[in-house]
Write a structure and sequence with these properties.
64% strand; mainly beta; single chain; elongated
Length: 214
């Protein structure tokens, strides 16, 4: 009798374990909406600008980047899509005296992003992404000097490329880190009191974030 009971008991234990594992896998791979928040640093990649027709070289310190997104995870397919809002800023520390004593180059953006998630043997999930949208506002605030004022533009087309890795802390919560290249191309900024500023707006961002699935 014991020779029959022992295998049955083992079979029940194995079947129960497989059921729990399958339930967990379904929970982790279930499709659904998610929300995420991120913070990081943003570094402007170009140091040249044209102010009222005169070229100048400017240096920038890394600034802050933060934002959030609402998206959809297609689960059994390696794709995600989301709408994202982000803010970036960088301090101008090397303005020529003929322009001003300091400044701040900042932007807000609204992007539609798509991601491809890679499968690995570990819990880490690398991914790549592309985004298209608008720099809803770009402005360069110059302090002091003859060119002081706010130079701005709204509605510039923008794109970004993303490389990151995600770690699922639970069935619903994930942590991630990523690097992004964001570009609005060459922008022409206008000052309300007269004057113009032209510069490329390209940034390299390093972010960490938290994502929660609904």
């Amino acid at each position: 009798m014991r020779s029959i009971t022992l295998p049955i008991r083992h079979t029940l234990i194995i079947a129960t374990s497989l059921t729990v594992a399958a339930s967990t896998a379904v929970a982790q791979d279930s499709a659904g909406y998610y929300a995420k928040l991120f913070v990081g640093t943003s570094s402007l990649q170009d140091d040249a600008l044209t102010l009222n027709g005169d070229s100048a070289s400017v240096s920038f310190d890394p600034g802050a980047a933060f934002g959030g997104a609402i998206g959809y995870d297609y689960a059994n397919r390696p794709f995600r899509a989301e709408v994202e809002y982000a803010y970036r800023t960088g301090d101008a520390t090397g303005l020529p005296a003929a322009i001003g004593t300091g400044g701040d180059f900042a932007s807000t953006s609204l992007m539609l992003n798509g991601y491809y998630m890679f499968t690995t043997a570990s819990n880490l999930k690398p991914y790549v992404g592309l985004g298209l949208g608008f720099a809803t506002e770009i402005d360069f605030d110059i302090e002091g000097g003859p060119a002081a004022g706010e130079y701005s533009e709204s509605g510039s087309l923008a794109y970004q490329a993303v490389l990151g890795v995600e770690y699922p802390a639970s069935n619903r919560v994930s942590l991630y880190g990523e690097v992004r290249y964001f570009s609005a191309g060459s922008v022409d900024l206008q000052r309300s009191g007269g004057g113009s500023l032209t510069s490329d707006y390209d940034t390299l961002d390093f972010n960490i974030g938290l994502a929660v699935k609904f």
